[in-house]
Amino acid sequence: MQQVTSALLPVMLLTAVGVVAGRLRWIRPEAVKDLSNLVFLVLTPALLFRTMGGVQPGQVALAPVATYFGACLLIFLGTLAVRGWNRAAAVQGLAAVFSNNFMIGVPLVGLVWGEAGLAHLFPLISLHSLVLLTLATLALELAPGTAPTGLHPARAVLQAIRSAIWHPVPLPILAGLAWGQTGWAIPEVVDKPLQLLGQALGPVALLMVGVSLANTRLGPQWRGALVLALLKTAVHPLLVLGIGLALGLSGQAFAVMVLAACLPIGANVFLFSQRYGVVQDQVTAAVAVSTFTAVVSIAIALALLAPGR
User: Fold this and answer.
1) Using one digit for the tens of pLDDT, what is the confidence trace for 158-185?
2) Model-level pTM?
3) Which residues fall in a coiled-coil region (predicted)?
4) Which residue, 125, 189, 262, 297, shows the most beta carbons closer than 10 Å to its own?
């Protein structure tokens, strides 16, 4: 229990500071985009490159990552089966499986397992948007009765793939892995600034989560939002855990995947719903609700899977 508290308390406190700062308008809603750019374009690439520079491809455990995406596929297809194959169901299915791996996952995994845990999380992050956004784009563009968007479905999918690859996440991961194969150490004059930038990622990202929550209103969407939040933070990790145990998986890499599945809905789902003009209010509310339901899931997962268990 002490390990769970020590891991969750800094996350909750930093998020709470962000909420207060947002409510008091010390950080205005207009500044969230600038904070987002700082996190995604500066701090994240520094941390990703520096961490992956010390990882060999053979150290990446593929089975836990495959288990994570297998659970995603089951939930996504299940959502389409229950709610019908339409644009709203496709966005809701994406919300039920798309984790906030950056702003919450990276600082949380870093606190619990350090760089060793991050080395397991980053390969998942590098594939996360590519796999899930492409899947959702296919479902949206090919949904029966969908009005044309002006793009051929194949071109829309190719654009989704290109956007997911040409992104400040996969590129520094691949660059870091490539650098690691040279056997050269990162020069200290470069390594130290990268280290300092990487250390700033967690606090700044969590502050941004809090500011975003301070400006989110649930309104009449809370019922649908709660369903999506429970699918994401309860059903998703339980499926990852169940599939992994059935396959005989264990160890740190598997624990990181289960914890990643516990995380709340990522902001990319909101951007996706805005782009297609589908269930925007419900997704916005679900992102907020899942942030709170994830606290319970994360606490349970850490109690079962944290180091020393």
Assistant:
1) 765 666 556 566 678 778 878 878 888 8
2) 0.74
3) none
4) 262
